[in-house]
Amino acid sequence: MEGAEGNVYVLRKTYPNEEAARRAAAARWQQLQRGAAEFSITLARGRADLYPEMHGTVSGFKSDIDNQDWIISRIEHVIDDSGFTTRLELEAKIADWIAERATTG
Questions:
Q1: d(CA 25, CA 68)
Q2: Was domain 18-104 assigned CATH 1.10.10?
Q3: pTM score, two decimals?
Q4: Has residue 89 got a pLDDT over 50?
Q5: Where are the domains of the chain?
Q6: Mean pLDDT, the chain, as a whole number?
Q7: Pairwise CA distance, residues 36 & 99, whole Å
Q8: Pfam families, from UniProt (predicted)?
């Protein structure tokens, strides 16, 4: 098992060996430590200046979403017949004191 003691998160995929399963568990644990919420959006007008791990905010949504510090976890720029668009996958950055409390129990 990877991570901290307490709650158990079950990976649903079956892995070919123990090492692959441990790597997947460690990667998921790091992802859970980085963010508690996820949000994705496609921008009608592409933004080539955006890149992964960049911090940002959004507006025009519920206040809980608008007031959150987001990190771009994945980005895809597309140029097609519709023009230039950007698809963002964002993760909420959890407060340091929450992450510390979760790992120390």
A1: 27
A2: no
A3: 0.58
A4: yes
A5: 18-104
A6: 81
A7: 10
A8: Phage_GPD
**27/31 Cα distance (integer angstroms):** 6
Closest by alpha carbon to 4, among 41, 23, 30, 36?
30
CA distance 43 to 19: 38
CB 88, CB 40: distance < 8 Å: yes
Residue type for position 78: V
Q: What is the pLDDT of residue 102?
A: 46
56, two tokens = 């940002």
Two tokens at 31? 């992802």
Amino acid at 66: D
Closest CA to 84 of 52, 46, 53, 30: 46
